[in-house]
């Protein structure tokens, strides 16, 4: 017999687990739409996690915690921006260095907070949604950041397609030379996109340390930054597909935890890697059309901008 309460609990946990991934991947999507590839998402999430936890624990204010996480992630991303936009450093190498820097810095700064925990963010009831039959139980157990992540996804999708800001951003990513010739500042647009991506990755990290597991653990992102980068590519730079991929990761993550709790006869390390394996496998299957990926990818993705003298 189907246990409805268990299914609803799994759905709630899956939506919450997917939220930091949505935030980080959404930020990376904007960065890549502008023509840059920042592989430092994992590092930015880690510094956002430790900064958010430190401020949240010290003040008890979750708003300040998420702002701190966003600022920490953004500051780290600006290092990447300076390196690749002003010093013309290889974007992939700079991103990898950023991940290493973020991991080391978060481990060092987080020593003072190791082993401490805090009260998690409480759910909110959204009018009308909480009154829905069956699913109202799910909506009444979600926190504000889950709704913020979904609202941000819709906002980014609309801005990219329907506004001048989105048009300029996409123009810079598609052909930076033409955008420069039209009078747009390629460096400024990309710098702003990189800062946006860093802020959202930092918020994703803060959500991990303040809500998912309200404590600081070294390396607690556990590869989610890399999954976020993969999501953007395999979702062919479409926000809706990105969210679906994140939800899939969240669902499998929660189910493997329940599997361990139920004593499934599978080694725990195999269950732990299952969310990553299933997510990547499904994303590969739905993006087998290499031509469509090439057509969807920004034309100047990963290419340095060198304005003519």
Description:
The protein contains 13 helices and no strands. It is mostly helical. It has one domain (4-220). The model has no long low-confidence stretch (mean pLDDT 88).
Question: What's the short version?
Answer:
This protein is mainly α. It has helices spanning 4-33, 41-59, 62-85, 91-109, 135-139, 144-162, 164-174, 176-181, 186-212, 224-234, 239-261, 268-286, 290-296. It has one domain (4-220).
The helix/strand series, from N terminus to C terminus, equals HHHHHHHHHHHHH
How many DSSP E strands?
A: 0
Q: How many domains, in number, for the residues? A: 1
As a percent range, the share of strand residues is under 5%
> What percent of residues adopt helix (DSSP H or I)?
over 70%
Distance between the termini: 72 Å
Mind telling me the C-alpha Rg? 20 Å
**Unreliable parts:** none
* Mean model confidence by pLDDT: 88
Q: Tell me the quaternary state.
A: single chain
Organism: Roseicitreum antarcticum
Protein name: Simple sugar transport system permease protein
GO molecular function: transmembrane transporter activity
Membrane topology: Multi-pass membrane protein
């Amino acid at each position: 017999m189907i246990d409805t309460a268990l299914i609803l609990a799994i759905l709630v946990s899956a939506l919450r687990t997917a939220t930091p991934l949505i935030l980080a991947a959404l930020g990376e999507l904007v960065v890549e739409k502008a023509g840059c590839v920042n592989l430092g998402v994992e590092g930015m999430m880690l510094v956002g996690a430790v900064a958010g936890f430190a401020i949240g624990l010290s003040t008890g204010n979750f708003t300040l915690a998420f702002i701190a996480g966003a600022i920490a992630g953004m500051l780290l991303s600006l290092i990447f921006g300076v390196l690749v936009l002003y010093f013309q450093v290889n974007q992939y190498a700079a991103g990898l260095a950023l991940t290493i820097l973020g991991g080391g810095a978060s481990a060092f700064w987080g020593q003072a907070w190791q082993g401490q925990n805090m009260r998690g963010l409480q759910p909110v009831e959204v009018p009308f949604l909480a009154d829905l039959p069956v699913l109202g139980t799910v909506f009444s157990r979600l926190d504000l950041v889950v709704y913020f992540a979904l609202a941000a996804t819709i906002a980014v999708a609309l801005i990219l397609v329907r506004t001048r800001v989105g048009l300029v951003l996409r123009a810079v990513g598609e052909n930076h030379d033409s955008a420069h010739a039209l009078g747009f500042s390629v460096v400024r647009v990309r710098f702003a996109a990189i800062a946006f991506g860093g802020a959202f990755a930092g918020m994703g990290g803060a959500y991990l340390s303040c809500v998912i597991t309200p404590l600081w653990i070294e390396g607690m992102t556990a590869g989610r930054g890399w999954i976020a980068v993969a999501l953007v590519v395999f979702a062919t730079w479409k926000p809706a597909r990105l969210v679906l991929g994140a939800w899939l990761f969240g669902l499998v993550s929660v189910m493997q935890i329940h599997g361990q709790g139920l004593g499934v006869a599978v080694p725990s390390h195999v269950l732990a890697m299952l969310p990553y394996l299933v997510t990547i496998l499904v994303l590969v299957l739905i993006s087998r059309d290499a031509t469509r990926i090439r057509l969807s990818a920004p034309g100047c993705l990963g290419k340095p901008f060198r304005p003519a003298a």
